[in-house]
């Protein structure tokens, strides 16, 4: 591809004390793409997402949107155009659906545009509209995942980051969520997706990276990786 990436990660390193979790990760996401990152438990997928967002400190490396190098402070990263639906959803259980969504809009100040985004989230996930006044802690796992994605969309990001949206959900609910992600991408949203459910992720994404113990060991079009015998043996066996 000759054009410049929208999101670009270069030489990203993260350590937790003596544990080196990321050892120089490079990754690009182009406008309009869905890119997935697959890997086993503990490979560093969540660390990658959290380091991109500035939620864990980066020892080295840069994260850029276009030509702009992003801050390492998470509230600034959101204002600069990235938004994360985190692993385990992390909805605010004692707040309502509406209140959770409004929390996601914190960097914005145009009330009418915020309302328009909320209406759009309700179109994508009508169940959230039906339950708009309900406490998030009383939603089902699938509904909480919808809320986490909706909350992330409320900041009107340039790139939407999703950490394990399928975690702990029934296959039919996963199918619904992935169908909505495809729709969101079809409307123009660029997506970076981290998944242990490698088959689903490869089926949804345009390109993918495979990470193992903090390094990218393979990358390419998802349609090629899904038929790669090494990927199949290591990551597709049980999904
Ligand atoms: P999973 O799919 O199980 O969440 P992952 O690929 O997301 O795995 P990470 O959670 O990023 O992997 O973990 C990468 C490595 O960093 C692992 O060895 C993990 O034990 C370690 N690690 C993650 N968070 C911390 C932490 N807060 N303190 C110490 N070590 C950590």
TrEMBL record:
<dbReference type="InterPro" id="IPR017871">
    <property type="entry name" value="ABC_transporter-like_CS"/>
</dbReference>
<feature type="domain" description="ABC transporter">
    <location>
        <begin position="7"/>
        <end position="238"/>
    </location>
</feature>
<dbReference type="GO" id="GO:0015807">
    <property type="term" value="P:L-amino acid transport"/>
</dbReference>
<keyword id="KW-0547">Nucleotide-binding</keyword>
<dbReference type="InterPro" id="IPR052156">
    <property type="entry name" value="BCAA_Transport_ATP-bd_LivF"/>
</dbReference>
<keyword id="KW-0813">Transport</keyword>
<keyword id="KW-0029">Amino-acid transport</keyword>
<comment type="similarity">
    <text>Belongs to the ABC transporter superfamily.</text>
</comment>
<dbReference type="GO" id="GO:0005524">
    <property type="term" value="F:ATP binding"/>
</dbReference>
<dbReference type="GO" id="GO:0015658">
    <property type="term" value="F:branched-chain amino acid transmembrane transporter activity"/>
</dbReference>
<dbReference type="InterPro" id="IPR003439">
    <property type="entry name" value="ABC_transporter-like_ATP-bd"/>
</dbReference>
<dbReference type="GO" id="GO:0016887">
    <property type="term" value="F:ATP hydrolysis activity"/>
</dbReference>
<protein>
    <submittedName>
        <fullName>Amino acid/amide ABC transporter ATP-binding protein 2, HAAT family</fullName>
    </submittedName>
</protein>
<keyword id="KW-0067">ATP-binding</keyword>
<dbReference type="InterPro" id="IPR027417">
    <property type="entry name" value="P-loop_NTPase"/>
</dbReference>
<dbReference type="Pfam" id="PF00005">
    <property type="entry name" value="ABC_tran"/>
</dbReference>
<dbReference type="InterPro" id="IPR003593">
    <property type="entry name" value="AAA+_ATPase"/>
</dbReference>
């Amino acid at each position: 591809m000759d054009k410049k990436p929208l999101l670009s990660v270069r030489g990203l390193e993260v350590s937790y004390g003596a544990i080196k979790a990321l050892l120089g990760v490079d990754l690009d996401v182009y406008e309009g793409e869905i890119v997935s990152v697959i890997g086993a438990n503990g490979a560093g997928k969540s660390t990658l997402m959290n380091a991109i967002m500035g939620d864990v400190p980066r020892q080295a490396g840069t994260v850029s949107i276009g030509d702009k190098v992003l801050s390492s402070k998470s509230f600034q990263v959101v204002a600069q155009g990235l938004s994360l639906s985190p692993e385990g959803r992390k909805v605010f259980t004692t707040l309502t659906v509406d209140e959770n969504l409004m929390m996601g809009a914190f960097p914005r100040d145009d009330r009418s545009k915020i309302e328009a985004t909320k209406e759009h989230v309700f179109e994508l996930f009508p169940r959230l509209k039906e339950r708009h006044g309900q406490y998030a802690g009383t939603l089902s796992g699938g509904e909480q995942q919808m809320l986490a994605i909706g909350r992330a969309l409320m900041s009107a990001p340039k790139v939407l980051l999703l950490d394990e949206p399928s975690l702990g959900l029934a296959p039919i609910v996963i199918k619904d969520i992935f169908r909505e992600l495809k729709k969101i991408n079809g409307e123009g949203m660029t997506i970076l997706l981290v998944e242990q459910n490698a088959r689903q992720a490869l089926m949804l994404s345009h390109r993918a990276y495979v990470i193992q113990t903090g390094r990218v060991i393979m990358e390419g079009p998802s349609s090629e990786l899904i038929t790669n015998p090494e990927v199949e043996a290591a990551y597709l066996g049980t999904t």
